[in-house]
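Data availability (excerpt). The following record was deposited with the supplementary files.
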Amino acid sequence: MSLNFVIPPLSSTLSLALQAKIDQKTKPLGALGKLESLALHIGLIQNSLTPSLNKPCILVFAGDHGIVEAGVSAYPQTVTAQMVANFLAGGAAISVFARQHDIELLIVDGGVNADLGSHPKLIDAKIGKGTQNFLTHSAMTDEECSKALQVGVDLVLRQYESGCNCIGFGEMGIGNTSSAAVLMHRLTGLSLVRCVGRGAGLNDVQLQQKEIVLQRALIHHKGATEPLDVLATFGGFEVAMMVGAYLKAAELGMLILVDGFIASTALLVANKLYPHVLDYCIFSHVSSEQGHQVLLHHFNAKPLLNMELRLGEGSGIALAYPLLQSAVLFLNEMATFDEAGVDH
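Predicted structure:
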């Protein structure tokens, strides 16, 4: 597998001008705290003194994982398809939050182990009905992994061409915290124990079983070390699609909002391939999943929220989005000292 993207580092040309614009607003220097650094970051991503958020969108990628057969999840695999139906019916958390903030929500069937039918908000991009069990086989073939990456690329390009410049990626897939934990361990070198968490609610005995299963899988696939090989071996269709999506969004200069543990692990793969992808990312929150906290530290990331979420779906993105709106609005609409006739 080979990828060909052009993702440059952000230009610092506008940095001084953006900071001067922020400092001229009617407030003490630095008084808006982290909102000021957020406005600066958005301006740099868009290379503009007057950034805007146009047609924000969240793509939720759904896929099933063969590793569930090994007893690593507290929920049966059927929940993936049931939750996709809930997304489409408007009843899930992400459905409610996206509706609240007028964010377009699209659900992508990347590899759910069910026939989902058709729906205006459902994109059929199914690679297969779930991945293989990576305890004994590679989760994906190289061809399947390449197809999944390309799906992510194509869907982001479609949103960009429709006028979207602010995008985020959610996921749904029973068993995908196991996939994420192994990807994180293999690509960072951090101990597996630090990467594995309780997922959707494992008890102590189940958590120990999960660690044993994942350790066995790592031994079985000890030869997979390069990012794309690691992704094909341990990833999910939805994870690979997010990797392609991150890379294309960064190449297009879009503002990328990052969700929780699974989404951040997909970003880790993208970052190993193209380091500057992180420049275009804003981390929405830190979840209560242990591995996410460790991974954010690895990225040296500063998440906007700490709401103790552990839901996925892109829920943290939707909750953090109003902060981006506030950052852009104060930068563009708040009066300067001279405009307001205020001494400083």
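Summary of structural features: The chain has one domain: 57-328.
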